[in-house]
């Protein structure tokens, strides 16, 4: 009984931290939740007093199980149809008032509130993490996100502290190629304004306006997982992206709608079919004053938790 109570207390203390690690490692909400649950079951099955540092034990268990999951799914990933996008973390957009894409220009939020809700799990960020090896990803996240020191990371990943320091700096250069990101020029629209303009342009069918918010070499990635219709290759170039979106709009059934939502802590869109079911999640990468990448997730397996 005491063990159960202790585990419940630890669950409340460490669940968010462990989910943060697992989700960034895997890009899957469902798999991350499963692994966190398995880690606590593993802890509950240990003899009292056998775990000197519970937090380190749980992080090591989650890290190792994530790497095992990645290994087992490697072949499946290689055979994946079209671009792979992570399963999104979607939350209601504050003060949206139920606005759909047609009223996107009316949505608003205090920018500091939006910043406070940002959890650095945007689609673009998760895709960058996917470019790292499994060990690089684990070391980077344990250091950058969870603020572990190198001796602690070494104990978790089974490498020396010196090696972990080298791995981290290599991974950090891949994720953050510039140590000091350039600040946007004064007066240029931010992420929220660009997404609102994007949504309004789609709602009105104004392709010229859409081109104004896309960078010249903008790219669109569409993930249907081979289960629904989606572009199987990235679409590159503002005109091609706009043309693809125009074609998608023409094929939509009457009654299709969209509403603003927080996707990985940033403004995105959730789209709905005429019957009210979720049909997709759209997120963005903004670079300076333009949308550089559009991510459209329509794989139904990854939309199961979106409302």
From TrEMBL:
Residues 10-75 form the RNA polymerase sigma-70 region domain. Pfam families: Sigma70_r2, Sigma70_r4_2. Residues 124-174 form the RNA polymerase sigma factor 70 region 4 type domain. InterPro entries: ECF_Sigma-70_Domain, NTF2-like_dom_sf, RNA_pol_sigma-70_dom, RNA_pol_sigma70_r2, RNA_pol_sigma70_r4_t2, RNA_pol_sigma_r2, RNA_pol_sigma_r3/r4-like, WH-like_DNA-bd_sf. Interacts transiently with the RNA polymerase catalytic core formed by RpoA, RpoB, RpoC and RpoZ (2 alpha, 1 beta, 1 beta' and 1 omega subunit) to form the RNA polymerase holoenzyme that can initiate transcription. This is RNA polymerase sigma factor SigJ.
